[in-house]
Amino acid sequence: MTIAPAPSLRQYALVTGNYWAFTLTDGALRMLVVLHFHSLGYDALQIALMFIFYELFGVFTNLLGGYLGARIGLNRTMNIGLGLQLAALSMLLVNPQLLTVAWVMAAQAVSGVAKDLNKMSAKSAIKLLAPTHTNSSLYRWVAVLTGSKNTLKGAGFFLGGALLTNVGFKPSILIMMLGLGSVWLCSLMLLKANLGRSVQKPKLRQLLSKSSVINHLSAARLFLFCARDVWFVVALPVYLAQQLNWAYWQVSAFLAVWIIGYGLVQMLAPLITRKVVNNASPNGFQLAHKISFKWQITLMFVPLALAMGLYFEWQSDAILIIGLGMFGIVFAVNSCLHSYLIVALSKSSSVAMDVGFYYMANAVGRLLGTLLSGWVFIQFGFISCLLISAALVLCATYFTFMLAHRH
Q: Cα–Cα distance between 303 and 264 in angstroms, integer?
């Protein structure tokens, strides 16, 4: 891996540290909300509704956040994101009687804006700060950032469950606020000004004027993440607690281990897909498209196999553990390839806007997946969530196929 100049590496380390700290609190907060409100008697659909604004506001934040980052700098959008997350956490410290679904939805809306400002800033900054002399070095840097982020998100799931079990809901929120507040102060003082600010101010009409390559990649991302969240976000933890009688700490620990493993696989994705790494020519993009297409075909069969195993009642616990492991490995490679492609195919002069548009599609997928996860689970059950997941992966595969033949 090429060595970057020391100032760039320091800034990259700071951006990554901000992203890690934010992700840890974000994962913990999600698990706190899901488990706390399930313990109060809320059903899967009501819990899913709490995250609607989290995902919905992420759609607009990614689209406008890229534009904002290009105009005022990625350093400012990242710091705004950290500050908004602190505001979202503080909203959950009200009297328990005021902690209604509507209020939690509002807090999650603020958190959704914060999360996507932070993510867009971090993913865009890698194009500007990390050494990218070849496709392979860029792929490795993207894999490290993406994989480590998801590993910490899994740690956040575990942290949320552990905090809820040991200290309760409100003390858990206070602990997270103190930790994230320290990170925010360091970022305000140390993050370089004007990072990622465009020399020529972008116009609002440029927000949706993307190339067909960016559009197809974004569509594939939308369906890919909808396919994951349609069964993973709400249906799975509630199924584990209701149908399999798992304790809350078991649910959070299991999902935490899954996310951590998922992140580790993402960091290893360049080793798993060596052909992409070893090809430093422009054809490396075409090769990445084709490899991503093959991995998505493989992914489609995993939820189908899981649904079959659960339908015939083949040791539900074992089937879920094995199936989730397989899904995590294949999904992680797909996700990492997509993250590499959007950074590689974006222009340095418009990287914030291209990445923002791409993650807007990601947020739409997560929003649809979250809604479907609660509704389908209540109406038709967990197996139906898995079948819909397979159909959505097929849609993502179609757009990846189109991408490979357009670029």
A: 21
* Tens-digit pLDDT profile for residues 298-316: 999 999 999 999 888 777 7
- Residue 26 CA from chain centroid, whole number: 10
Between the CA of residue 17 and those of 23, 28, 87, 116, 144, what are the distances in Å?
A: 10, 17, 20, 16, 13
Q: Return the CATH number at 263.
A: 1.20.1250.20
Residues of the chain scoring pLDDT < 70: 1-9, 44-45, 127-136, 193-210, 275-289, 347-350, 404-407
Query: Would you state the pLDDT for residue 314?
Result: 78
DSSP string, 126-161: HHHHS--SSHHHHHHHHHHHHHHHHHHHHHHHHHHH
How many angstroms separate the CA atoms of 112 and 57, rounded? 6
Our count of domains for the chain comes to 1
1 in any annotated domain? no
Q: Has residue 204 been placed in a domain?
A: no
- For 216, residues 6+ apart whose C-beta sits below 8 A from its C-beta are 399, 400, 402, 403, 406
Nearest residue to 276 (alpha-carbon basis) of 120, 140, 382, 387: 140
In a domain, 191, yes or no: yes
Q: Mind listing the pLDDT tens digit for each residue in 291-300?
A: 778 888 999 9
Domain interval for residue 83: 6-197+210-406
- Note whether residue 253 is domain-resident: yes
